[in-house]
Amino acid sequence: MNQQPHTSATPEQDLMITQEMVINKVMNTLDVYGLNKAIEKIDDFRKALSDFPGWRATEAKLEEIIKAYRKEEKKARELEQKNLNQMAMYMTSMANQTATQQPAAGCQEPIPRQPPSDKLIRRCLELLMEKRDTKGKPLFRNKDHWQAVFCILAGKLHFNRNDFEFFDVLMKRIIPDKVNAHYSRSAVKNISQTPYFKPLEEWEFDEKLMKTREPFERMQDIAEYFQQLLETTPED
Length: 236
Fold this sequence. Notes:
61% of the residues lie in helices and 0% in strands. The protein has helices spanning 11-33, 35-49, 55-100, 118-130, 146-157, 164-174, 185-189, 214-232. Helix 2 runs antiparallel to helix 3 (55-100) and helix 3 crosses helix 6.
């Protein structure tokens, strides 16, 4: 029997496969852990693959990815500052209205609470991660549950519910060191396709979107508990 000659991938194909693998690894690191970890990952690849044919082309593509990410981060910071300025104007307006409104004799009105600080949000997230359900398991336990956090903070911080960049920058700034599920911007962005995109009081179970009520009720419990934490946890 004649033995067929062994065929292998061409150097160009080998390079393409390696390049795709490297870029995917860096993109995943960027999405989950942020810029600094992605740069560390690139450095690791540089040490391992610098002598590999075509590494310079791969490195150039990675540099383009990092450059584009930094550009988006800059836009997000500018947008965040704009939102913070708008929030400050809103709170000044609310304070002025409160100062000019005198309650009737014998009637004491509740004083509106200021938007939660970064420190308070971080502390409430830590407490949320410690909360257990009736079975003793973490109440917050998968990445979709960040949608409940998004919903509540959109109401408390008065940012647009389509402003995922603002929320992403906020979370990267204040997220606790230990969480029950990794935060992912892509998971939160899916909120627009769910009932959780609306304010909490407008949530309704949708049989067309959900097979059972349990995920909806868990998300509701998470949102209500996080909101309660933000309203009752003292600012230190």
